[in-house]
Design a protein that fits this description.
The complex is a heterodimer of chains A (230) and B (85).
Chain A (H helix, E strand, L loop, with lengths): L1 H18 L7 H25 L3 H5 L5 H7 L15 H5 L4 H10 L1 H9 L5 H21 L21 H13 L3 H4 L11 H12 L4 H20 L1
Chain B lengths: L1 H11 L2 H10 L5 H19 L9 H25 L3
Classes of the chains: A mainly alpha (230), B mainly alpha (85).
Keywords (chain B): Membrane, Transmembrane, Transmembrane helix
Function (chain A): Mediates electron flow from quinones to the NapAB complex.
Cofactor (chain A): heme
């Protein structure tokens, strides 16, 4: 008992000391010291957050290895231009606030790792459709924001794309579709029944802001058509 | 649920939380601090929707305004406690 009240006293004194005016430090010293501490803290925080964006980190949970293996067979791992998209490029937003949110939500991954929700290949495949659906929902809601960090309809030269690709992309612009609407399974194997599941998500979420998107893209496609007519 | 927690964390570590705290530390008036916090939260929501009102997500806006207000009030408390004038 005596010990704990002693501790309380010390805490109280620390509290009073913390809030008492600093007689020996100049304002300048306190400000500069606080500024430096701020930089160090923020830099360290940011650095550790970046560390959780590496492939090594994601795969440090062996449950993520299935996806790693599949992704290694795709263009986003090896391609003629030598630009690679890693896990976090597609799964973690770049914008600060979205990124912090994604990192906090990922706490559930740790939870499911601990209770072993996908610890065996059988459990994994059973849960795959559910997990894929979670990713699709996110991408559909954000208009495939992560894909568009690297790809953008506006940067595509439809004249050198395969004819089918160009035609489909024109249709996508006209109708306000987003990348994931057509490019599911771009990095991993698709579970059976994915089309039905995607259809459901599509109907539940709809095409975001179709009305506005249409006018915007109609203007765009007119522009492209006049360009092509020339 | 986790989504909401994520939003709260993200707001605390970005504009509403940090600018809010800084703004709160500039005033001793609780009411003024709360008003500033609400404005900062609103600004954040607007900024994120790229100034397109139809794009604002209601829950996101409520959370950013709430966090803005709380951060400003905490800042105000720090000012009252830590500054003699």
């Amino acid at each position: 008992m005596a010990n704990s009240s002693d501790k309380q006293n010390r805490l109280q004194r620390l509290w009073t000391w913390f809030w008492s005016p600093a007689a020996v430090l100049s304002v300048g010293f306190t400000l500069i010291a606080g500024f430096l501490a701020g930089i160090l803290f923020w830099g360290g925080f940011h650095w550790s957050l970046e560390m959780t964006n590496t492939e090594e980190f994601c795969v440090s949970c062996h449950t993520m290895e299935t996806n790693l293996g599949e992704y290694r067979e795709t263009v986003h791992y090896n391609n003629h231009s030598g630009v690679r998209a890693i896990c976090s490029d597609c799964h973690v937003p770049k914008e600060w606030q979205h990124k912090v949110q994604a990192k906090i939500v990922a706490v559930k991954d740790v939870y499911h790792e601990a209770i072993g929700s996908i610890s065996t290949p059988e459990k994994y495949e059973e849960r795959r459709l559910k997990m894929a659906a979670a990713v699709w929902k996110k991408m559909k809601a954000s208009d495939s924001r992560e894909c568009r960090n690297c790809h953008e309809f506006e940067y595509m030269d439809f004249t050198i794309q395969e004819r089918r690709a160009a035609a489909e992309h024109q249709r996508a612009i006209d109708t306000g579709m987003t990348c994931i609407d057509c490019h599911q399974g771009i990095a991993h194997s698709l579970p059976t029944g994915y089309q039905e599941e995607y259809q459901k998500i599509s109907e539940a979420l709809g095409v975001p802001k179709l009305g506005e998107e249409m006018t915007f893209s109609e203007a765009k496609s007119d522009e492209i058509r006049t360009y092509l007519d020339q | 649920m986790l989504q909401i927690l994520g939003m709260i964390g993200a707001n605390m570590l970005s504009l509403p939380g940090i600018l809010g705290l800084a703004f709160g530390m500039m005033t001793r008036k609780w009411g003024f601090a709360a008003l500033g916090g609400a404005l900062i939260g609103l600004l954040e929501a607007l900024l994120f929707a790229k100034f397109d009102f139809s794009q604002i997500d209601a829950i996101e806006m409520v959370i950013s305004i709430l966090i803005g207000i709380i951060a400003c009030l905490v800042g105000c408390a720090i000012r009252r406690k830590g500054v003699l004038i």
